Amino acid sequence: MPSQSDLIDLTPKERREYGFLRVRDAAFDAVCTLWKRRQDEGMTQAQIAGAIDADTGWVSKNLRGPGNWTMKTFGAFVEALNGEVQISIRAMEDRLPVLTNYHAYVDYESEIPATTQATTEANIPSALRAAPSGNATMRGRGPNAVILIP
Fold first, then answer.
1. Tell me: the pLDDT tens digits for 104-116?
2. Which residues fall within 8 angstroms of residue 24, CB to CB, at 6 or more apart?
3. pLDDT, averaged across the chain
4. Minimal CA–CA distance to 61: which of 50, 69, 53?
5. Nearest-angstrom CA–CA distance, 5 and 21
6. Boundaries of every domain in the chain
7. CATH number for the 4-80 domain, one of 1.20.120, 1.10.10, 1.10.260, 3.30.70?
């Protein structure tokens, strides 16, 4: 899979700047997510400024946008917000990890009726089963499984 910067024609200098902006914006988004949580818990910008011995105006300006952010700025906000950083870089050609907890019913899967043809037909009362279609053009166009909701 090509890098996002490969999708458009960039000079080496533009590609370097593009890479910086992607990383800077990811850092800013992560800090803003934690800042929102801390705000909900009652933290103020004055507390952030006090924690890192910074001016409240500087804190306010940097939380509005990542304009001049450096790794030093990023680190200061992470510490002031009592956060933890984990940096992960993967090759663009590597597949994204498969999430094992990807839906709300993960802990209830054994209680959900099976959706395969063999097991669902056994669970469906005969009066509710659809008769096979006699129309050759319609065969195979209906659903292959039925989910029973108790």
1. 665 665 655 555 4
2. 66, 69
3. 77
4. 69
5. 11
6. 4-80, 102-134+142-150
7. 1.10.260
